[in-house]
Automatic annotation (TrEMBL):
It is found in: Cytoplasm. This is P-loop containing nucleoside triphosphate hydrolase protein. Residues 405-421 have a biased composition (Polar residues). Residues 422-432 have a biased composition (Basic and acidic residues). GO terms for biological process: microtubule-based movement; mitotic spindle organization; spindle elongation. ATP binds at residues 90-97.
Length: 727
């Protein structure tokens, strides 16, 4: 499975003015292809956000150029049996339909007709080259998902039922019951069908765009190649997604809000799936929305191309940032190292403010969560319900490649912005070593946030930061640094506890030089810790936690097991492993029994005995340090005290200590027996039960230590420990 995420900036439309264009394509270096989208910060024009993609297509890119670069190369793969899925994602009016469907003129035709044209051409060539031995059939289905309901676009709208077409599982696949499929002979055939069915597509007016598409339109092109008995089937899916705009800026009515909630939910799941595919996760949450479920997204070997459509206009500013953010998450894995960079410019640009005569599209209310994926309240709710801990945007922050920010330029960054940046920096990844050094997130960048956050003049509270507060700050920062390290190694950022972030926000703005110094010292300490493997272990643990949080139990188990050698004998960690194993049906009962001992669910004191008694020869490698701390494995030579006990038990006279021990045992008093070393609750209870079976206190009396050690469940080691414990 592979994902490619590209951005396409549409040209200015007739009434749009050049001076209102704020989105531009850029490259990491001269001579390199365009891979960066740059957009100013809505809060501070002096700052510019950079989002990196696999490829960026600027305003002048023609339909032909886009198709040749992004889709045509995969037609071959389609005929080799791979599934190809192409999405157009973006805000209403950014050119999704133009990209996928295009105009009527030949040059304006979009991805879909070009794809079909290529498919028919290649199909014919294959048939010809095989002298007719191989036949190629092309069949289409075309449907839309509107308000989470599936409607067949090849059928007339009056045949629709309000609930849409049902889904069923068949042979492990999700099928849309009753969805029609039409075979297509050639391009003309296709165009006729496609034009007809597009008329059926649900469109509804929103304030943003009178022809706004409020449904996802999915065209599936099934290619069947038959050679004798051999049948090869593959599917190309082209999806024109519904607009991803923020409801709060569209003044939608109730009906539109319901539509938007459904759209946002499915787009959210889509972005999660794309992310998961790109990370190479085993678990893709494709079942969580109808669209991804029907597409079985990420379930087969295949190629997914996501085209992010962008309007260059200022009036789309916040929505553009939102969708850049979503798509960059998807892209992050492909271009791992330099996504979502925030570039601090040297000096504020003398650009116009956010207003302007051409700002027609949205009132630019400053939204605190400008970087959220879907900022609509309903979407947030849906997202909360589905994924309680949606990963935070992974903004890497680095200094402008031309020069590092000077003190003065740093000072231009507002505290609010830096708080936002700080939140994200904990998820920063390492730079791609292949990138020039100047473009890499510099180490300087991370601590700089705190410097940036420092008010120009020290606030009075700054002086009142107590040692405890500094400690708390340092703690938090360490957690952030560790999380950041983990994020560098892991594909997905760890969501740091929201509460902690909220708490720290006001304080972090007051970070003093002292804190800064201590943070640096701590960083160094963590670096040094790394040498003894502990921080590596912590990093793996964090990865495990991330996997667990995204519901990937298999992955979590793998990481926990990997972390175990760094923390041999760690009871909690082993407990986690066993619980996960139990959940995944992988429990080894014998190991579980051992863990009961280790967890204190069984007698901890008796661990030696349990190790050698219960597990000896039971298939557990007791020399495996993952399971047993070395200390416990080394059978110690009996101490002089132990030897004394042996003598005492076997042949020596009854000492006061022996008497005392036997008295406790013979008292049959549970709490007294439990107070003995080596006697946990269960062992004590077993002993009392056994003694009670033996008759009254006189007849059932234990007369010697040798007799005591013969009792079931007691053993010589227990007796030794109990004896030693009685000082
Ligand atoms: N690359 C382009 N070249 C020329 N015109 C374009 C381009 N992209 C978009 N347009 C024009 O911009 C307008 C909006 O595009 P389009 O309808 O494709 O947006 P959309 O994202 O599909 O919107 P919706 O979500 O409402 O369907 C249309 O008039 C379209 O012709």
């Amino acid at each position: 499975m592979s994902v490619r995420v590209v951005a396409r900036i549409r040209p200015l439309l007739e009434k749009e003015l050049d001076r209102d264009a704020i989105v531009r394509a850029d490259r990491v270096d001269d001579g390199k292809p365009l891979t960066i989208v740059k957009i100013p910060s809505p809060k501070n024009e002096a700052e510019e956000f950079s989002f990196t993609f696999n490829s960026v297509y600027e305003q002048t890119t023609s339909q032909e150029e886009l198709f040749s670069a992004e889709v045509a190369p995969h037609v071959k793969a389609l005929f080799q049996g791979l599934d190809v899925t192409i999405f157009a994602y973006g805000v209403t009016g950014t050119g999704k339909t133009h990209t996928m469907r295009g105009g009527m003129k030949l040059a304006e035709r979009g991805v879909i007709p070009r794809l079909l044209s290529n498919v028919f051409r290649r199909g014919k060539k294959i048939a010809k080259d095989s002298d007719g031995e191989t036949t190629v059939q092309v069949a289409l289905s075309y449907y839309e998902i509107y308000n989470d309901k599936v409607f067949d676009l090849l059928e007339s709208p009056d045949k629709r039922t309000p609930s849409g077409l049902p889904l069923r599982e068949k042979d492990g696949k999700t099928i849309v019951v009753g969805l029609s499929e039409r075979s297509c002979e050639d391009l003309k055939d296709f165009e006729k069908l496609y034009i007809e069915s597009n008329n059926n597509r649900m469109t509804a007016a929103t304030k943003l765009n009178a022809h706004s598409s409020r449904s996802h339109a999915i065209l599936r092109v099934k290619v069947t190649q038959t050679t004798g008995d051999m049948v090869k089937e593959s599917t190309a899916s082209a999806i024109d997604l519904a607009g991803s705009e923020d409801n709060r800026r569209t003044e939608n009515g109730k009906e539109r809000l319901i539509e938007s909630a459904a759209i946002n939910k499915s787009l959210f799941v889509l972005s999660q799936c794309i992310d998961a595919i790109a990370r190479g996760d085993k678990r893709i949450p494709y079942r969580e929305s109808k669209m991804t479920r029907i597409l079985s997204l990420g379930q087969n070997n295949g190629i997914t191309i996501m085209i992010l459509n962008l309007a260059p206009m200022r009036s789309y500013h916040l929505d553009t940032l939102s969708s850049l953010n979503v798509s960059s998450r998807a892209k992050r894995i492909e271009v791992r190292e330099i996504e979502n960079e925030v570039v601090f410019k040297q000096a504020p640009r003398a650009t116009a403010g956010l207003g302007g005569p051409n700002v027609r599209r949205q009132p630019l209310r400053p939204l605190a969560n400008a970087h959220n994926v879907h900022t609509g309240a309903l979407a947030a709710k849906a997202a909360d319900a589905k994924v309680a801990d949606k990963p935070i945007k992974a903004f890497s922050v680095y200094t402008d490649k031309a020069s590092k920010p000077t003190a003065s330029s740093r000072a231009t960054v507002s505290a609010a912005n830096t708080a936002q940046l700080r939140r994200s920096d904990s998820h920063k990844r390492q730079s791609d070593p292949s990138e020039s050094l100047s473009t890499r997130p510099t180490k300087l960048a991370r601590p700089t946030h705190t410097t940036l956050a420092r008010p120009a003049a020290p606030a009075p509270q700054q002086l009142s930061i107590s040692a405890a507060e500094i400690e708390a700050l340092v703690e938090k920062k360490v957690a952030e640094i560790l999380a950041s390290r983990a994020a560098e190694a892991a594909p997905v950022p760890v969501p740091a506890p929201a509460a902690a972030k909220e708490d720290s926000a006001p304080l972090q703005n007051q970070i003093s030089d002292e804190v800064q110094r201590r943070l640096e010292a701590l960083e160094r300490r963590i670096e040094n810790d790394g040498q003894d493997g502990r921080s590596e272990g912590l990093r793996i643990l964090l990865q495990a936690r991330q996997a667990k949080e995204r519901g990937d139990d298999e992955g979590a188990l793998r990481y926990y097991e990997l972390a175990l050698p760094f923390f041999p004998g760690q009871v909690k960690l082993m407990g986690k492993i066993e619980r996960l194993k139990a959940k995944l049906g992988k429990t080894d009962r014998k190991k579980e029994r051992f863990l009961q001992v280790r967890d204190g669910r069984e007698d901890k004191e008796n661990v030696h005995e349990s190790v050698y008694g219960a597990f000896d020869g039971a298939g557990i490698d007791i020399n495996d340090p993952r399971w047993f701390p070395v200390k416990l494995l080394q059978k110690k030579a009996p101490s002089s005290k132990t030897r004394k006990v042996h003598v005492d038990m076997e042949e020596g006279p009854t000492t006061p200590r022996t008497k005392k021990l036997l008295n406790v045992v013979n008292s049959r008093d549970l709490s007294l027996i439990r107070s003995l070393h080596g006697f946990g609750a269960k062992k004590a209870q077993d002993l009392v039960d056994h003694l009670n079976l033996g008759g009254d206190e006189e007849s059932g009396r234990v007369a010697s230590l040798a007799q005591l050690k013969m009792l079931p469940g007691v053993g010589s080691r227990t007796v030794e420990r109990a004896y030693e414990g009685l000082v």
